Structures are given as C-alpha cells and as structure tokens.
C-alpha cells in the first residue's frame, strides 16, 4: 500500500493541476490506479470542503482523477456536524493529511446572507435560512463596518470580502470545532487551509 503524500506535496500537486486547468492543458493520462483496486479501496490525497455551486467542479479545477479527492459539497461551504464527521472519517480512515475549504467568487449562499443582513425582512425557507445563519457570523462584522461608512457601499467588493471571511470561518471551525481534527493538526498530522476559486478565470488562490 502506498503511503499518503504529505500535505505540502499534495498542495503543490493541486496548484500544478490548477495551472494546467487554466491553460486548458488538462491531463488525459489513464487512471494510475486500476479500477478493480479503486473499487476495493480509496486513498484520496486531499479532502475538499467546497460549495455545491455547479460552476465549481472540484476534480476538473485541480485536474485530479477518479479516487484522488475526497469531496464534500454544501451550499456556502459551511461547516455543520455532518461535514465535520465526514472530514474526521476521511482523515482517520485514509490518513489524508490536507483539508482545503474551497469558496468561490459570486457565491449564491454568501450573497443570500449579505442580502439578509441588508434587508432583515428577506424571507428564506427554514432549511435555506439554516445555511444563511451559519454564514452570518463571518460577514456580520463586515456588514457593520460597511453600513457605518459615510461612503456608498460597493456590493460586489463586499460580497468578495464576505466570501473570503466565510472560508476563513469554516477553516477555524474545522480546526477548533472537533477534538479529533484539532489533535491531528496539533500533532502535525493534518493541515487545514482555505482557498477561493475565481469562476471567471479558473484560478484558485490559497490563503496563507
């Protein structure tokens, strides 16, 4: 059995794959793992918590093949118990050492949260409201600063900042909202970072 690659090596692979994606040079090489082996066992090199948005096809963005990424997608890339449990499962069972929280530009869930803050009378279904409520803390301070300003608020820039704030909050929740993940991070066994995908250019920016 091949050991999992370390987080920095996997991160470098993702960055290289994204560069190939942007250059429209996606690899056409066959799967490195024969299908019967892949059916019997998966060994993903990275765990991705991303948004459900149809414009964010994670495997294509990073030019990764079948079985190479453990992908969890939910509107707004929010963190809830089911997402935490899924990440704990993959990190413990497969020994995967890198978790990436992947937000994206023009995120509908983040936009819905911003609109709800600007217009408290805005109605969403209870289930959608639960997603908005999970995003709200990450953008509330941004909203307070923006509304306190004497100048006109640039909604596009505000949403861009809110997307990044939401990613950072999800990263923090994963690092500190699970004893299992926190212990693995502290032991150097797991790296959790944030990133943002630009739907216009295809570029992924990883947060420091």
Descriptive terms for the model:
208 residues; Beta-carbonic Anhydrase, Chain A; 13% strand; single chain; 8 helices; five-stranded mixed beta sheet; globular; alpha/beta
How many helices? The count is 8
CATH topology: Beta-carbonic Anhydrase, Chain A
What's the helix-strand series? Answer: HHEHEHEHHHHEE
Integer average pLDDT: 88
| Main sheet characteristics | 5 strands, mixed
Tell me the helix content. 40-55%
CATH level-1 class:
Alpha Beta
Q: Helices and strands: which structural class?
A: alpha/beta
Textual characterization of the structure:
- The protein is of the alpha/beta class and 208 residues long.
- The chain has a single domain, classed as Beta-carbonic Anhydrase, Chain A.
- Helices cover 50% and strands 13% of the residues.
- It contains 8 helices and 5 strands, in the order ααβαβαβααααββ.
- It has a 5-stranded mixed beta sheet, with helices on both faces.
- α5 packs across α6.
- The two termini are 32 Å apart.
